From TrEMBL:
One family name in Pfam for this protein: p450
Recorded superkingdom: Eukaryota
Membrane topology summary: Peripheral membrane protein
UniProt KW Metal-binding keyword: yes
Family in the record: Belongs to the cytochrome P450 family.
Cofactor(s), by name: heme
PANTHER family on file: CYP9F3-RELATED, CYTOCHROME P450
The protein's name: Cytochrome P450 3A24-like
Alphabetical keyword list: Endoplasmic reticulum, Heme, Iron, Membrane, Metal-binding, Microsome, Monooxygenase, Oxidoreductase
Cell compartments where the protein resides: Endoplasmic reticulum membrane; Microsome membrane
Length: 153
């Protein structure tokens, strides 16, 4: 780590304060988002034991005694992926995004003047009944092709 810091300070124009603030930011954005996502995933599974059972089955099928827990093994778990996606939909760790136009542009047919800041309401979009049927319901099958959706059953 000290080698990396020395390199950054000698070969870039970044000051030690900027490097330190970036390290702290990295720690915060990486830690808080991940822990919040995992906590809400555990909560959702506890409240919906049918999905917890489906996930446990997928994990048991994919991980036999002696299986090495690699990135590829975990990546080959579509229901786990759906559980995480549905958790991030219901409880997005980042609830809004902002973008400021650096020049006059059009977003589709809407003119956006240079300097205008646009807010993208992630949380509201994720809970919009026009976009997600029964939006407050935890239903990972929205993101999982081969599972019957709760509202279809
Ligand atoms: C569930 C976990 C995570 C979620 C939901 C998440 C969400 C996001 C979102 C929405 C943005 C875009 C912000 C914007 O453009 O205004 C972002 C950017 C970023 N995230 Fe994450 N993040 C997660 C995990 C992590 C982890 C683990 C790290 C690092 C260890 C990380 C590092 C960053 C960084 C450095 C940026 C800024 C990228 C840039 O400069 O454009 N994130 N993240």
């Amino acid at each position: 780590m000290s080698l990396l810091l020395k390199h950054l300070m000698c070969f870039t124009e970044l000051s030690s304060e900027v490097i330190l603030s970036q390290c702290v930011l990295f720690f915060l954005v990486g830690y808080d988002t991940t822990s919040s996502c995992l906590s809400f995933a555990a909560y959702n599974l506890a409240m919906n034991p049918q999905f917890q059972d489906m996930l446990a089955k997928e994990i048991d099928d994919k991980i036999q005694p002696g299986t090495k827990l690699t990135y590829d093994v975990v990546n080959d778990m579509p229901f786990l992926d759906a559980v995480i996606s549905e958790t991030l939909r219901l409880y997005p760790p980042v609830v809004i995004l902002e973008r400021t136009a650096r020049e006059d542009i059009f977003v589709r047919e809407f003119p956006v003047k240079k300097g205008t800041t646009i807010t993208i309401p992630i949380y509201s979009l994720h809970r919009d009944p026009n976009l997600f049927r029964d939006p407050d319901k935890f239903d990972p099958s929205r993101f999982h092709q081969s599972t019957t959706r709760v509202w279809d059953s």
